[in-house]
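Worked example 2:
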Amino acid sequence: MIQYTDSSDLAWSLEQSRRCKLLLVAVFFPDAYRALKDFEDRPGFETLERFEAELEKIKALRGRVRHDIGQGHT
């Protein structure tokens, strides 16, 4: 288990975790990553809607993968 000596260690660890997650999204879901970056750069309803649509695509994909695994398909 990781022992944090102060809040700056925890903050650094959380930031590294966030960066790793962003990297994984960028590699495996580039459209979602671009939508997220657009929303961060230009916050608004239109960019948020686009990002949420990309998230829904990922959720649907995850559901299909879980179903296929449950059916014995790999």
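The first helix runs from residue 7 to 28. The chain has three helices and no strands.
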